[in-house]
Structure formats: structure tokens, C-alpha cells
Automatic annotation (TrEMBL):
Domain called Aminoacyl-transfer RNA synthetases class-II family profile: residue spans: 112-348
Binding-site residues, Mg(2+): E260
Protein keywords: Aminoacyl-tRNA synthetase, ATP-binding, Cytoplasm, Ligase, Magnesium, Metal-binding, Nucleotide-binding, Protein biosynthesis
SUPFAM superfamilies documented for this protein: Class II aaRS and biotin synthetases, tRNA-binding arm
Necessary cofactors: Mg(2+)
Catalytic activity: tRNA(Phe) + L-phenylalanine + ATP = L-phenylalanyl-tRNA(Phe) + AMP + diphosphate + H(+)
Name of the protein this chain belongs to: Phenylalanine--tRNA ligase alpha subunit
Organism superkingdom: Bacteria
Family: Belongs to the class-II aminoacyl-tRNA synthetase family. Phe-tRNA synthetase alpha subunit type 1 subfamily.
């Protein structure tokens, strides 16, 4: 009797002292498991005499029931305490403003936004998007584009060259996206209408130049492409991109090795109050270069300049983004400052559309 009483006292103390579900389960197993203390006592009943079994049976079974009851009660107490702690931790002050979700709190980088805007505009004109690698060969970046070996025009591009390979040839980081045009002309039959957005690299860094920047070029190749078509495309693009009803453009003669004739394009603007506004004013701002594809480039790409002709243009995505959205310095584009991105970035669900408006 004394042993049963001592065992019960010990087990009930262990149950009461269990601080969590795991500890309580350990107490249950040590008392009521197959090899538990109470289970061992129940196993002895079969070897007792009927008189002893009649006396000890109710005592041992009563001990088992009381321990089971204590364990169940303690389990319910621990569950209630855990629920109370969870409710306290997950308490929400419903008087606070609703927090923005990631779909509204996140921001699209202005470069990504402008690339999407450009794609939407030219896609509406029937242009496809062509892409190519950032690391290019000298032949695709220069030679195929009518830059002969040793030609001074190569010095117009401050090029990042890589280490020579086993044959002594050096690859480079492309200085423009024009190699994508070469790859397209060599892989597709005319008519060709593509734009080539992407990263480009030049050894230059200041307020309006960075070693890595973004560029988009356009290319049209067919039998009748001419300067009038080029002018119309660029005018329609500028009106759609800058969201103005009309623009005045000025084409100035220039020189590019890969086009002939070549031109630089200015767009009419106003600079009053330190703000650039397009479609009005008496000032001009250069925004891109263009021209008719040089016959040598067509030959280098396997096309017959007597059968087809084309035009191309190129502009800096970072530059037109600065002009459209009033960003005074190019360097923050690449500094990963969340405060700057929160100010100049775009909401993820505001996808550019010519129907709904490029900027929502």
C-alpha cells in the first residue's frame, strides 16, 4: 500500500511539473507505457492468488485511472496555455491602417519599365524583339559592321576587351546591341523588323555615363525600306513614348560606319523652369542616331544590297528614361537604393499598354 501511495505521489508530481507536451508524453510513457511503472504492476495481477488479486486489483487500477486523469487534465491545461500565447503573439490592432501587400509595395525599376514601354510601342508596329549575348567577338561587334581593322572609328567605343584565347583572339563586352542585328540578318530572311534592347558596356563614367548602360536598336530590312519610313516610325515612337500629341524632329547629317547616309535626331522641347517638356518650346534635344544600313554591312551579313535595303536606329534607354521621368543623375540607376527605387519605381501591376496608357 505504501509503495502504491509513494508511486502515485511521485507520478502526479511529475505530471504537474511537466512544462510542455513533450515532457508530459515522457511521463505518460514512463508510467503507462508497455514498460511503465503502473503497467508493470498490472502485469503482476495474473500471478496473484484470487484473494490477493481481489485486494490489489482495485488499488492498482485506481492508481492507473488517477494517473491517466491527471495526464489528461495537464494536457488540456498546456493546450490552453499554448493557445493563449499564440493569440497574444498574433494579436492585430484593427485600428491600424491596412498594410500593403507585396503586389502593391514592390516596385519595378525604371529601366525595366521603359524597356516594357518600348516593347509595347514597337510591338504595336509589328516589330519582334531580338536578343544576343553580352560577350561578343570582334568580328560581330566591329568588323561585320564596317569597322575595318585599325579604323579610327573603333576609337569611338571605349571597349572592354577580355583576355586572348589560345588562338590569340580577344572577345569583348559588346559596345552596342548592333551585333544582335548582324546575328538576325544572318539567321533570318527579309523582311526583317526587330528591336534589340539590352545591356552594353563602355569604359566611361560620370553623371550621364556609366560603364554598363542600356540601349535599344531597331532594324528594318526589305525591298522598299527608305528614309521616309524611318522618319515616320521615329515620330510615332516619340509621340507614344513621351505621350504628346505631336512632335517636331530634326535630322542632322552625321557619321556612323554601319549606316550611309547617317543622321542624328533632335526633338523639339522646352527647358523653361529647368524642366524639359516635349512637343513645345523652341529648344532641341538630341535623342538618337539612325541611318540607312550600309551596303557593306548587308554584304557582310549575306544579303544582296541590290535586292534589299534597310534602315536602323539606336538610342540609350537610360537617357530617355531620365528625360521622360525627370531623373537628374544616371548613377542612382545602379546603386540599388531602395529609397530611390520607391520614389522612381513603378507598381508591379501597372503594365505598359497603348490602350490604357504607358504610365497608367
Amino acid at each position: 500500500m505504501t509503495d502504491l501511495h509513494s508511486l502515485e505521489t511521485e507520478l502526479l508530481a511529475q505530471v504537474a511539473g511537466a512544462a510542455d507536451e513533450g515532457t508530459l508524453e515522457g511521463v505518460r510513457v514512463s508510467a503507462l507505457g508497455k514498460k511503465g511503472a503502473v503497467s508493470d504492476l498490472l502485469k503482476t495481477l495474473g500471478a496473484m492468488t484470487p484473494e490477493a488479486r481481489k485486494e490489489q486489483g482495485p488499488l492498482i487500477n485506481g492508481l492507473r485511472d488517477r494517473v491517466q486523469g491527471a495526464i489528461q487534465a495537464r494536457r488540456e491545461t498546456l493546450a490552453e496555455a499554448a493557445l493563449a500565447a499564440r493569440l497574444a503573439a498574433e494579436r492585430i490592432d484593427v485600428t491600424l491602417p491596412v498594410r500593403e501587400g507585396p503586389e502593391t509595395r514592390g516596385r519595378i525599376h525604371p529601366i525595366t519599365q521603359v524597356m516594357d514601354e518600348i516593347t509595347a510601342i514597337f510591338g504595336d508596329m509589328g516589330f519582334a524583339v531580338a536578343e544576343g549575348p553580352d560577350v561578343e567577338t570582334d568580328e560581330l561587334n566591329f568588323t561585320a559592321l564596317n569597322f575595318p581593322e585599325g579604323h579610327p572609328a573603333r576609337e569611338m567605343h571605349d571597349t572592354f576587351f577580355l583576355q586572348p584565347d589560345r588562338d590569340g583572339r580577344r572577345k569583348l563586352l559588346r559596345t552596342h546591341t548592333s551585333p544582335v542585328q548582324v546575328r538576325t540578318m544572318r539567321s533570318q530572311e527579309p523582311p526583317i523588323r526587330v528591336i534589340c534592347p539590352g545591356r552594353t558596356y563602355r569604359h566611361d563614367s560620370d553623371q550621364t555615363h556609366t560603364p554598363m548602360f542600356h540601349q535599344v536598336e531597331g532594324l528594318v530590312i526589305d525591298r522598299t525600306a527608305n528614309i521616309a519610313h524611318l522618319k515616320w516610325i521615329l515620330e510615332e515612337f516619340c509621340k507614344a513614348f513621351f505621350e504628346v500629341e505631336s512632335v517636331k524632329m530634326r535630322f542632322r547629317p552625321s557619321y556612323f560606319p554601319f549606316t550611309e547616309p547617317s543622321a542624328e535626331v533632335d526633338i523639339q522641347c522646352s527647358r523653361k523652369g529647368g524642366e524639359i517638356r516635349f512637343g513645345e518650346g523652341d529648344d532641341w534635344l538630341e535623342i538618337l542616331g539612325c541611318g540607312m544600313v550600309h551596303p557593306n554591312v548587308l554584304r557582310n551579313c549575306g544579303l544582296d544590297p541590290d535586292a534589299v535595303q534597310g534602315f536602323a536606329w539606336g538610342m540609350g534607354i537610360d537617357r530617355i528614361a531620365m528625360l521622360k521621368y525627370g531623373m537628374p543623375d544616371l548613377r542612382p540607376f545602379f546603386e540599388a537604393d531602395l529609397r530611390w527605387l520607391d520614389h522612381y519605381g513603378f507598381r508591379p501591376l501597372d503594365m505598359p499598354s497603348l490602350v490604357g496608357g504607358l504610365t497608367g
